[in-house]
Amino acid sequence: MNNQSKDQRFAKLEISSAEIGQDLFIPEAGEVRAGFPSPASDFVENSIDLNKYLITHPAATFFGRVKGFSMINAGISEGDLLIIDRSIEPNNGAIAVCFLDGEFTLKKIKLEADGCWLLPENEDFQPIHVTEKSEFIIWGIVIHVIKSF
């Protein structure tokens, strides 16, 4: 094992199920420009249901709160809220919540013939090679990251 502590290798994720028993309609402002303001910026025409917009598979969807800094260069920071879908098939490059040797960790996955690599997005952290000796599952795939500023 390298010189990283177990706390550095594994993120502490608080995971909860997605409760979507009722619609959640929010007024939609339409197109929001990052340049010059639109003359119609005070006009709100439609509303969207965030449950329908963010959650495709309700029974397989969970929320997770990020603890740690190993994915900072992927734009995922401590405190961000993840929307995780357990029904999505993992593929190379996906950002996944993985269960490895009794702990959850959030990493980009790289699937190879000799196994799987869990890749951090922070140069202060080392990749983790998952071997057949590891207790390992890809628990779910991150489909959205919700940030607070």
Describe the structure.
By secondary structure, the chain is mainly beta. It has one domain: Umud Fragment, subunit A, CATH 2.10.109. 6% of the residues lie in helices and 38% in strands. The chain contains 2 helices and 10 strands, in the order H-E-E-E-H-E-E-E-E-E-E-E. It has an 8-stranded antiparallel β-sheet, with no helix packed on it. The chain is globular. It starts with 5 loop residues before the first helix and ends with a strand. The mean pLDDT is 81.
Helix-strand blueprint:
Elements: H1 6-9, E1 14-17, E2 25-28, E3 46-49, H2 50-54, E4 61-65, E5 81-85, E6 95-100, E7 103-112, E8 115-119, E9 128-130, E10 136-146
Antiparallel strand pairs: 1-4, 2-3, 4-5, 5-10, 6-7, 6-10, 7-8, 8-9
Output the CATH topology: Umud Fragment, subunit A
**How many individual β-strands?**
10
- Strand fraction: 35-45%
Form type = globular
The mean pLDDT is 81
- Structural class comes to mainly beta
Give a quick account of the main beta sheet: strands, pairing sense, barrel closure: 8 strands, antiparallel
Q: Tell me the domain tally.
A: 1
The Rg value, from CA coordinates, equals 18 Å
- Summed up, the helix count is 2
N-to-C SSE series?
A: HEEEHEEEEEEE
Helix content: under 10%
How far is it from the N-terminal to the C-terminal residue, by CA?
36 Å
Unreliable segments (pLDDT under 50, ≥5 consecutive)? none
Q: Using the 3D structure, state the CATH architecture.
A: Ribbon
Enumerate the strands of the largest sheet in spatial order, edge to edge or round the barrel. 1-4-5-10-6-7-8-9
Report the CATH C-level class: Mainly Beta
